[in-house]
Amino acid sequence: LGYTNLCIAQQTELPYIKHKDGRHCLMVDGKPFLMLGAQCNNSSAWPDTLPEVWSAMEQLKVNTLEIPIYWEQFEPQKGQFDYSVIDTIITQAREHNVRVVLLWFATWKNGSNHYMPGWMKQQPEKYPNMINKEGQEIDSPSPHAEATLNEDVRAFSAFMKHLKEFDKQHTVIMVQVQNEPGAWGSVRDYSKDAQKIFDKPVPKEVLKAVGKNPKSNKNWKEVFGNDADEFFQVWHVAQYIGKIAEAGKDIYPLPLYVNAAIRNPINPGPPYYQVGGPNDNVFELWKAAAPAVDVLAPDIYFSDTETYLKAMELYARGDNPLFVPETFWHDDFPKFFYSALGYGAIGYAPFGLDNTRIRINKKGEVMTAKEMYEPTAINFELFAPMASEIARLNFDGKIQTAVQLVPVDPTADRGNAVDRVNYITDKTLHLKSWDADVAFGTFSRLSRSEFQPQHPDGRFLIAELSENQFLVCGYHCRVMFKPSEKNKNSNWQYLTVEEGHYENGVFKVERILNGDQTDWGLNFDSPKVLRVTLYTR
Ligand code: N0T
Known about the structure:
Shape: globular
Oligomer: single chain
Largest sheet: 9 strands, parallel
Number of strands: 26
CATH topology of the largest domain: TIM Barrel
Bound molecules: ligand N0T
CATH architecture of the largest domain: Alpha-Beta Barrel
Number of helices: 16
């Protein structure tokens, strides 16, 4: 292959997810890709509304937009597909130099059938909802409805076929199949038909998936006891979506994912949460029932820090890359973008950001665009030029992160302004030959300064470029290095602390920091990227 041919080959290479030693990497155009994403509001994917989406994306500094495709718009009459909105989104995304994740809002949207075309909604006997224990219909489609499944498979196949033909340059890098599938309000379908299946022996594949004897002839209740209703529902939703995903993938093998309205990962309680989606307790069922789905992804809407971080931990697995397709964007939540990277995330996207919607701040005023977008943009602006390098370093297992968990009380903890041994440390990260002592907030000399940021929003990332060289970035924090335990008595120094940025894969040095900018630790009162080289003497 000549150079030009190689470039073309790489450019046309399909996006896919690579795996190595239990780590994962999304590849786009043949290169590691980190999705710096945002999701627009549910009703914003219309040509007349898209300007309000793009203006927000520009301010957010995203490289990826998550945006829905509505079944009711796509197939207004049975078998008549309208590709115009998809084409408009893709064409405009290219103009804005942004990649796209399309969200297939079809059988399930937040557990309901609200995005089914009208011609289906008007035939509820043919495309039924679930029946609860009391015999009443609930607002959620039945995963046992063969006719509904067939329509969805047919429509999704047409959608993927069109993407394959229209999007030769792979502007669309992933597809979300359904949105938060499963049901609120009833653990499973208690209709007569569903009950018949429930009373039958559990299928072999289910027993195998959960490590039970596949020769057993017992029914769901006998095998799973109190979990029977939940696992039954999960298996059928996962199988249903697995079939849709498989049909789409056969036509056009883009990476596919399914998002969950997750249960509380620490205190789940009884299944009053949405049942059916890829929750942390049913990964095995989902992986077995829907092998064409590449990623099971958590929508994280917990305000409690411990709970929030636990959700990420549970979805970052050897058999599953962490991808956070929806989360909060306000206050200090964007710091968790760093935590996601610490778990090897392939992408992260706050939800509900575009200019179609007015929000009110804590003072009761209409939020400015800056208030809405800056918390996210602070991260993405810094990471955009080096997104590919970060994805590659993560794939190689070189990244560690830390975030501020509690507010700083400067009056209680000013620290000592001159003590270079007993300085304040909130978190120590251990590298091969060095320790990085991280403290959050803002600093003056070695002590914390009197005034601290309104929210505990400190964040820190370190990547080992080599044994003695690190890429370091953060916001509202400080790092101090010291030789690790095994070298603890050696004298050390910075060889260089270079401030700069990546440009086409090369670190461009803007200036070398020294003197007051290094003698009191490396301070990130504003977001920046440093390349730090250390030596012992
Ligand atoms: C999300 C979004 C959108 C505090 C809600 C979250 C999006 C969907 N659902 O704005 O509708 O399309 O995926 C559900 C969270 C429920 C738990 C709330 C507890």
